[in-house]
Amino acid sequence: MQWIPYSLAAAVGFALWAFFGKIALRHASWAQVGLVYGVATALLFGALLLGPARRGFAGTNGWALAAGAISGALGLTMFYLALDHGKASIVVPLVSVYPLITAGLAIVFLSESLTVLQMVGVGCTLGGVVLIGVAR
Prior knowledge:
Elements: H1 3-24, H2 30-49, H3 60-85, H4 88-95, H5 98-109, H6 116-134
């Protein structure tokens, strides 16, 4: 259960990232905000790679790393565009549907499974996103 504190810290980090990103977009373009985020991320992970987080990523891990980086960069670009044109209180919950997509991909391609209770939680998440989308 070591993953729970990391997950909660990630949720807080993502919440602050979106909140401050929306504030930054008041005076900067989505491309400027994305670039600053990217540079900060590169510096942080660059520093971490100098320590115990260092691993090799050749072979099959190399393509997954590249695909993840490209997907993340495209997702980040679309996120900042959505945040620039929409309300954070609507955009962020709608974008938060990505775990449902990840769960589906993990079930199909990584042979992972969900319990009935976890499936109910996924359904509630999807229901919440639908309610946010239709309530204007």
